[in-house]
Write a structure and sequence with these properties.
Elements (H helix, E strand, L loop, with lengths): L15 H19 L4 E4 L4 E5 L12 E4 L2 H10 L2 E4 L5
Parallel strand pairs: 3-4
Antiparallel strand pairs: 1-2
Length: 90
């Protein structure tokens, strides 16, 4: 069995690099939505047309990213407020 299969909607999982690219784009969009106003975005992975959060919390909630390797740590360092370590090593 291919380890990329079994996605909840039936499609294959992209490689780790692709998943991190998607996550980075999504975190950017989430931050922009929490800034208020309408957002239209047509990126590499996400497409939004006049999206808006109507009830904005103050302050916006922190965003955490779980990490497991140097690439995900770099993404968390750039884009997240919290780093979530999932490796059992000290």
């Amino acid at each position: 069995r291919d380890s990329r299969t079994g996605h909840v909607v039936g499609g294959p999982w992209p490689a780790a690099e692709g998943r991190l690219d998607r996550l980075g784009e999504a975190v950017d969009l989430i931050r922009r939505l929490f800034a208020g106003g309408y957002l239209t975005h047509h990126g590499g992975h996400c497409h939004l047309d006049s999206a808006r959060l109507w009830d904005l919390p103050d302050p916006a909630p922190p965003i955490g990213i779980a990490v497991s390797d140097p690439t995900s740590c770099a993404l968390a360092g750039r884009a997240a407020d919290l780093l979530i370590a999932v490796e059992p090593d000290r």
